[in-house]
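Let us practice reading a record.
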Amino acid sequence: MVSSSNSQTSYCYFNVNPYTTDIFLSYSNTIMIRTQESEKLKILIQEADTIAIFGHENVDGDAVWSILALGAICQKLSKKTRLFTTNTPSDIFLFLEDIQKVETNFDYGTYDLMIFCDFTPYSRIRTITQEHTDYFDKQKIIIIDHHVADTSPNTVLTIRDTDSIATCEMLTDIILQNRPKLLDANIATYLYLWLATDSGNFLFPSDYTRTFAVALSLIQAGADKDTITMEMFRSKSFDATQYMQVVLSRMQRNESQSILWAWTNASERNEYGVQRAEAKFALNMMQDIRWPLLIVLFEVNDYNIKLHLRSKWVVNCQKIAQSFGGWGHVCASWATVSFGWTYTIWNQEFTSLSDNWKSIIELIYTSLDDFLI
């Protein structure tokens, strides 16, 4: 192991030897994972016999890959491990070997260790934690997350890297750094999933040297790239495709063509039998249109609007979402705007009503320059 150290923190970096299958550590300009935190995580898992691993509500790909990969690692270490989310993962994940191990009914039993993956506050698993905060306050909790968090429960360890594009990216670093011999084809496939999906199957700008080095190491470990490509990018259902046509038929853009937007609602999605994860196919298609700087999909419900924001590394979606009390990343963020609430956004007061939600586009446009990267 090669590491750099100073009086504050020691860091490790990894890359792949292009001439062998060995993973080696070296200095580079890649994402940093603190070795002290990684070592503490290793020790805490070693000391535990029973472990509960949680993914957040409306569980997305990053949370799914993370809990499956970490759960498989813990099980290989002979730990009694259970995986929990507040809702059943989408059917698009059914091709994954261990997806049936994810449970939605938590037992509030005795666990030596709990790990929150891809989220921080209790509110992100509210149907599990509500009325049970005293129970969770007494637990030994680890958080592994790449999101900015305003609040956090008491933890024995928090590993946070807001520069990472995915929590599963952080786990990949940690596993390759500390437990590379535990990698098998199944775990490598889970880890490769974040690489393919969060990079847009290598379409989005990134640290290409690092991205492809990681991809090579995981493929060498047996990651099933062909199945991932087919299942995640080339297996849209007929109903989801029809639904996507409906959403795309509503696309509009402002006069300057800087913002492209469309809308849908939950009842419409249910009418087509489309799950939430599949509903974003239209949003992905909208991102392929040439000129817009910002893409917005509105999901209009009875009591609120959900904003799904995307950009092409030009507009900071995260800052826009935070203005509405949301969260996310620079190029992909989310927010929920409740009807009847008044928001102070960019020094302007905006009261969200069921008949004025389209004015959000004008509100965003008037301050778009403030959110350019």
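A brief commentary: The chain has 14 helices and 19 strands.
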